[in-house]
Write a structure and sequence with these properties.
This protein has about 90 residues and is mainly alpha-helical. About 60% of the residues lie in helices and about 5% in strands.
Length: about 90
């Protein structure tokens, strides 16, 4: 069970001003930094923008995860007519 830090502060008598003075921050910075809903919302929006601006990149990564054999394609070998392995790039 996670108890919000602001609730713990309230129950123990620690104020935003106390934390601000102790850490040499402004009271408004401490208030925003301890607002867990705000933090989650800001992170979510940042992730949305990262995804939106890099759809092609994420698509390539997703495709590579779904088809990992693509990465190893250069390692594949074929059999020569005599049964010995030879690199796939070579042709006879």
């Amino acid at each position: 069970m996670n108890i919000p830090i602001k609730t713990l502060m309230k129950k123990t008598g620690v104020t935003l001003k106390d934390v601000a003075e102790h850490g040499n921050f402004s009271v408004s910075t401490v208030s925003r930094a301890l607002d867990e809903e705000l933090i989650l919302s800001v992170r979510e929006k940042a992730i949305d923008l990262i995804y939106e601006r890099n759809k092609f990149y994420w698509g390539v990564l997703k495709h590579m995860k779904e088809f990992p054999e693509i990465e190893k394609q250069s390692d594949k070998t074929t059999e020569a007519k005599d049964g010995s392995p030879e690199p796939a790039a070579q042709t006879r």
